[in-house]
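User: Reviewer 2 asked us to show a designed sequence for the structure in our supplementary figure. I'm pasting the structure tokens here. Could you produce the per-position amino acids so we can include them in the response letter?
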């Protein structure tokens, strides 16, 4: 079933007039005839079923049912990855959205060669996040933060008592415990911040700064993973832990 995000509050019995971009998709791509049922997510993240009404001058919808479902994680899951090559970066955005990440904080590190994104590229990244959220029927579109320096990231983490930051150490010499063990130690009410290095990893100076700030270290096994693989594996493990805890409450 097709899903759309609507930038207004909805209610059962309410009427929706779609913006031009959604109308074009409904008419030209989906070729709706009227009467089809779609999912709508309103500005508050509330899900509804709505029935399409095809009119001469546009496509509208009537909200017919409020859905009682839970699709978002109970506490924020933040991915803070170093920027990597465009194709891999966009794949990572899509998959992280599907797995439930709530925010993405791109970071600049010593070994990042990617330039700051242009406004057009940022707009494309937002579209990727929205389309992925629609495809997997989430209630929220992940928020992508402006790119942070490593020091800016550490400042944010230091100032927030409700954050638990974990840096994925790709080398065994960092003597990092397995990520599964570190995740189990996180207080359920705390937001998790998963910090992922670039291709080539973090430098020794950067690892030293993480240690100074008492950021938790964690490993993903003896193999050296690509940055996008480490990001998705980490997010998936953290999301599954949150969902298991929610079921056991």
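Assistant: Here is a per-position design you can include in the supplement:
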């Amino acid at each position: 079933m097709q899903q759309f995000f609507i930038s207004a509050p909805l209610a059962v019995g309410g009427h929706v007039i779609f913006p031009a971009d959604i109308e074009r998709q409904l008419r030209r791509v989906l070729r709706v005839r009227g009467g089809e049922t779609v999912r709508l997510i309103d500005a508050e993240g509330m899900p509804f079923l709505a029935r399409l009404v095809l009119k001469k001058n546009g496509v509208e919808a009537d909200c017919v049912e409020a859905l009682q479902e839970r699709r978002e994680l109970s506490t924020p899951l933040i991915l803070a990855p170093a920027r990597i090559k465009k194709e891999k970066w966009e794949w990572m955005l899509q998959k992280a959205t599907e797995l439930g990440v709530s925010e993405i904080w791109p970071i600049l590190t010593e070994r990042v060669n990617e330039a700051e994104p242009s406004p057009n590229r940022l707009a494309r990244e937002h579209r990727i996040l929205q389309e992925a959220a629609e495809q997997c029927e989430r209630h929220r579109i992940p928020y992508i933060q402006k790119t942070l320096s490593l020091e800016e990231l550490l400042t944010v983490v230091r100032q927030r008592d409700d954050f638990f930051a974990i840096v994925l150490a790709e080398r065994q010499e960092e003597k990092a415990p397995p990520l599964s063990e570190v995740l189990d130690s996180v207080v359920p009410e705390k937001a998790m911040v998963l910090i992922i290095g670039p291709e080539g990893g973090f430098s020794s100076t950067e690892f030293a700064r993480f240690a100074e700030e008492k950021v938790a270290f964690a490993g993903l096994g003896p193999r050296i993973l690509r940055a996008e693989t480490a990001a998705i594996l980490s997010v998936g493990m953290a999301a599954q832990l949150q969902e298991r805890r929610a079921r056991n409450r």
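For the response letter, you might also mention the following. The mean pLDDT is 92. The longest strand covers residues 47-55.
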